[in-house]
Write a structure and sequence with these properties.
Order of helices and strands: HHHHH
Strand content: under 5%
Number of domains: 1
Helix content: over 70%
Distance between the termini: 31 Å
Number of strands: 0
Number of helices: 5
Structural class: mainly alpha
């Protein structure tokens, strides 16, 4: 597997770690989903006491699970990122690819699962990051060609 794809995988793991952190630190999201799954949107009525107890208990277990997943995905991200550093032609290439992938996957997951909106400023910044990544890749390709020409002479 090439270094760039390893860096993309590391960016994906970093995005998953951030999603787990958001879920671990946002109990209202988990409670809302629990009440929806159990068919109750209002926990104030007396008939909902059992539902409230179940969701409160579930909240504790789910939050601990997401805290554990934060560490797991960060460990995976660092492992894959270090491998990408070893196989990419430069550490800059691996770092920029990892960062761009992390931004992209975080945006897609945030938009798809949390219904977050992406501002014009975000799109401009992402476009500049991707443009920089393309320029770095082109520069690396030209450098490799020059080195190959020098070796052939």
């Amino acid at each position: 597997m090439s270094g760039q794809w390893l860096a993309v995988g590391a960016g994906f793991c970093a995005a998953l770690a951030s999603v787990c952190a958001k879920l671990a630190m946002s109990p209202e999201i988990i409670l809302h989903l629990c009440y929806q799954m159990l068919g109750s949107d209002n926990k104030q009525t007396t008939s909902e006491t059992a539902t409230s107890h179940i969701c409160d208990l579930m909240l504790v277990y789910v939050r601990f699970t997401f805290f554990g997943l934060i560490f797991l995905f960060n460990a995976l991200m660092w492992t894959v990122f270090v491998k990408s550093l070893q196989t990419c032609s430069s550490s800059l290439e691996a770092t920029v690819t990892n960062t761009a992938a992390n931004f992209f996957f975080t945006a897609v997951i945030g938009w798809g699962f949390f219904h977050e909106s992406l501002s014009l400023l975000w799109w401009i910044g992402s476009s500049l990051t991707i443009t920089g990544l393309v320029l770095i890749h082109r520069g690396m390709a030209k450098e490799k060609c020059r080195e190959a020409e020098k070796k052939s002479l």
